[in-house]
Amino acid sequence: MTFAENVQLEVFAILPAAIEAQGTAGNPIRMTATEGNEMPGWWQGIYLRDDFGGTLSNVIIRHGGGASSPANITAEQVLPGLDAQGSLTVENSRIEDSGKHGIACNDAGIDLTAQGNAFAGIPGKPITGCGTE
Length: 133
Prior knowledge:
Layout: E1 2-3, E2 8-22, E3 29-33, E4 45-57, E5 59-62, E6 71-76, E7 87-91, E8 94-96, E9 101-105, E10 111-115, E11 118-120, E12 127-128
Parallel strand pairs: 1-3, 2-4, 3-5, 4-6, 4-7, 5-8, 6-9, 7-10, 8-11, 9-12
C-alpha cells in the first residue's frame, strides 16, 4: 500500500471505528511512500481519533509523519465530553523513517499495547505521549 504526498490514512468517527492490518512474518503488510518518493515525512501516516480500536501486526510503516502529523502513527482524543475509548495494538511491526516520532498520542489514557516492534530512522522518540514511555 503506497501513499501520495501529504495523504493520511484516517480512522475516526463518532461511533467506534477500527483498523485491522494483520500480515505475517514472511509476508508483512507495507505502508509506505509512492515509488521514487521514499523519504521521511512524505505522507502524513495513520491517524486514529476519539473512539477507535484495532491491531497492526506484522506491518511495515515507513515515510510517514509529514508536516502536520507528529508520527507514522498518531492517536488522539479530541472531542471533549465524548465517552470514547482509543485502543490500539501494534505488534511485531517495523516503524521506520518517520518525519518525527514513531508512534505519538496526545492522551496518556489511550490504551496502546506495543510489543515486539522495531524502530529505525526515527529522529524523535519511538513512542511518545502514550503513557508507555
